[in-house]
Specification:
The structure is a single chain. The protein is α/β, with parallel strands linked by helices and 228 residues long. The chain has two domains: 118 residues, 3-Layer(aba) Sandwich (Rossmann fold), CATH 3.40.50.2300; 97 residues, Winged helix-like DNA-binding domain superfamily/Winged helix DNA-binding domain (Arc Repressor Mutant, subunit A), CATH 1.10.10. Helix content is 42%, strand content 24%. It has eight helices and twelve strands. Strand 7 and strand 8 form a beta hairpin. Helix 2 packs parallel to helix 3.
Length: 228
């Protein structure tokens, strides 16, 4: 199980990322300031560090520089709202291996984590199936089973199922879902997403599976078993 050090002082974001990493079965240690990050990174072993730039007392640039001065070569992904080219260059020059600008899609962050772990550990292997309560989704064949019932999924439904099963009980924002389903297409209406989710929800719930609930003003999440 890869170990990740998450350094983020925004409490809600820290919790959201930690929850996501937990779902992906990463062993995650969290902290909220630069000095503690330096202590943890230089006294413990981690496979990867997620490092915010704007931190109390000691900023992320200084943390990365200090870690590298200690000859610690753990991959560092900087996560920050500072998106100027000069900021990105400075982050990479101080020791970061990658630079992700907020707001970002969790799917992109996970993809970058997997990429760096593949390079450094060679131990990462994608799961062949995802499970939650009585749902089981086989990634390669895109087969969804709910107990003994098998459901054939349309392409967009398969994408949604995989996302919800990767992050059960975590709210996925409308924008995250829209980006994953349609990418840069700008002419997709909001109710198109609602229609896809509504149809998928009815199919899962009618077969006795867990519910996909709307979280007002935020997005959707795969939640508890639906009450019949």
């Amino acid at each position: 199980m890869p170990r990740i050090l998450l350094v983020e002082d925004d409490a809600p974001l820290q919790q959201a990322i930690a929850d996501m990493l937990g779902v992906e079965q990463y062993d995650t240690r969290v902290c909220a300031d630069g000095e503690e990050a330096i202590f943890l990174a230089t006294t413990g072993f981690y496979d990867l560090i997620l490092l915010d730039v704007m931190l109390p007392a000691t900023d992320g640039y200084s943390v990365a520089k200090t870690i590298r001065q200690q000859k610690i070569m753990t991959p560092i992904i900087m996560i920050t709202a500072r998106d100027r080219v000069d900021d990105r260059v400075h982050g990479l020059d101080t020791g970061a291996d990658d630079y992700l600008v907020k707001p970002f899609a969790f799917t992109e962050l996970l993809a970058r984590i997997r990429a760096h772990l593949r390079r450094t550990t060679g131990e990462f292997q994608e799961a062949d199936s995802l499970e939650f309560e009585n749902l089981r989704y086989r990634i390669a064949s895109r087969e969804l089973s709910i107990g003994a019932t098998n459901i054939r999924l349309a392409p967009k439904e398969a994408i949604l199922v995989e996302l919800f099963l990767r992050y059960p009980r975590i709210v996925l924002t409308r924008q995250q879902l829209m980006d994953r389903l349609w990418g840069d297409e700008s002419d997709i209406l909001d109710n198109t997403l609602e229609a896809h989710i509504s149809r998928l929800r009815k199919r899962i719930v009618s077969a006795g599976g867990p519910d996909i609930t709307a979280v007002r003003g935020l997005g959707y999440r795969l939640d508890k078993q639906h009450s019949q």
